[in-house]
Amino acid sequence: MVNCKQDWGQYPVTVFLIDDQKSVTKAIQKMLNHVEHLNFHACNNPLKAMDEILKIGPTVILLDIHMPMMDGFDILRQLQTHEATQDIPVLILTIDTSAATKQKAFAMGTDDYLIKTPCKTELLLRLRYHTRAYIDHLEREATLQALQEKKQELKTLIKKLELSSYQDSLTEIPNRRSFDEAFHREWQRAMRETTALSLIFIDIDHFKQYNDFYGHLAGDDCLKEVAQGLMQVFKRPTDLFARYGGEEFVALLPNTDAMGAVYIAEKLRLQTMALKLEHEKSSTADCITISLGIVTTIPMVKHQPRKFAHMADEALYEAKQQGRNQTVCKSI
Fold first, then answer.
1. What is the CATH number of the domain that holds 14?
2. Which range of residues forms the domain containing residue 297?
3. No. of H helices and E strands in the chain?
4. CA 65, 71, 74, 80 torsion: positive or negative?
5. Which end of the chain has the lower number of beta carbons within 10 A, N or C?
C-alpha cells in the first residue's frame, strides 16, 4: 500500500489519455514528460480506446467529453460495464465548465473533473491520488479474494474432517459414532410416530481364524470387500449400515418390521456368500460367511434403547451358537 511520496517508485502511475485533439495530447504529454514513475499513453481515436485500455491496463484514465466520433459519456458507459475497467479511476478533462455536464459526469461514475488545460502540479497530484486509491482498492480486493479462498478451503477441510469423524477409515462406511447418533435419532422418531424400528447385528464368521491363516493385511482387505459388498444391499436413504467394531457391522432400519428386517438380513447373508472370498479355515463354509441377529419393536417410553441393542447382540450370539451363516430374529 502506498503510504508516502517515497512509495511512488513501487507503484508507478500509468496514464491513458483519450482526446481527439492531437494538440491537447501533445500538450499533456509534454507536461508529463520526464516525471519519475509515470507512464503516459494516448489515443486520438475514441473508437479504439477500449481495445487500447485493455492492452495497457492503466491506473488512471483522462477522458475528454466532447469528441466527434464518440463522446466521453459513451466511453464512460463502456468502462463502467466492463469487468476489467469498471474500477479504473476516470478523470474528465474538458473545456466544458457547465454544471449540467459536470453533474452528469459524476452521476455516471467519473472520479474527478478537470478543466483543460490544468497546471502540471495539480494534474500530477490528482493522477497520483487516484492511482493510489485504485492500487489500494486492487490490493484490498486481492486480499479479500485470498481470504475468501482460504475461508472456502477451511470450510472444505472442516467438512472433510467432520465427514471423516463419522466414517470408518478402513472400510469407508459409517462408523460407530455415526450409528450411535442415528440410533438415538431414529429411536426418538419411531417413538413419536409409532413406527417399527429394526436393528441387525452382523458378524463375520471365524474371522480370527481368517486373520491367523491369511494375515492381518488380508484380513483388512476382507473387511473392506465385505463392507462395500453389503453396502450395496441398502437402497433407502433412511437405512444406515455401519462398522460397529472389529469384524462386526450393524444395520439400522427405520420403519421396518420383523419381516422386512429378515428379508434384508437374508439378502446380506447371500450377498456375502456371492463375494466368494475364500476361507480355508472356516468350519462353516469354504468362503466368508456372516451371522446375523435381528431385533424389532415399536419403541415406547417403557422400552430402553440399550436393552433393545443388547437383544440384537443376543440374537447374533444365538445365530453363532446354532451353526453360523444364519439369522436369528427377536421382537419386543
1. 3.40.50.2300
2. 176-331
3. 10, 10
4. negative
5. N
Q: Which of 136, 76, 132, 152 is nearest to 107 (CA)?
A: 76
Residues 269 and 312 in one domain: yes
Are 101 and 240 contained in the same domain? no
Q: Which three cell numbers stand for residue 104?
A: 452528469
pLDDT tens digits, 106-163: 999 999 999 988 899 999 999 999 999 998 898 898 899 999 999 999 988 888 887 7
Place of cell 441387525: 200
Residue 166 resides in a domain: no
CA atoms within 13 A on the CB side of 48: 10
> CA 237 to CA 182: how far, in whole Å?
12
152 in any annotated domain:
no
Say if residue 190 is in the same domain as residue 324: yes
Q: Are residues 129 and 183 in the same domain?
A: no
Q: Do 244 and 325 reside in the same domain of the chain? A: yes
How many structural domains comprise the chain?
2
247 is catalytic: yes
Give helix 49-56 / helix 72-81 axis angle, nearest 10°: 40
Has residue 236 been placed in a domain? yes
Specify whether the backbone of 160 is left (phi greater than 0), alpha (psi in -120 to 50) or beta. alpha
Reduced to 3 states, what is the DSSP secondary structure of residue 297? strand
Question: Out of 153, 186, 247, 318, which one is annotated catalytic?
Answer: 247
Is residue 82 in a domain? yes
Report how far residue 6's alpha carbon sits from residue 239's, in angstroms, rounded to the nearest whole number.
Answer: 68
**Beta strands per DSSP E along the chain:** 13-18, 38-43, 60-63, 90-94, 112-115, 197-204, 240-245, 248-254, 290-297, 327-331
Bridge partners (DSSP) of residue 203 are 248, 291
**How large is the C-alpha radius of gyration of the chain?**
38
| Weakly modelled stretches of the chain, pLDDT under 50 | 1-6, 8
- pTM, two decimals, is 0.59
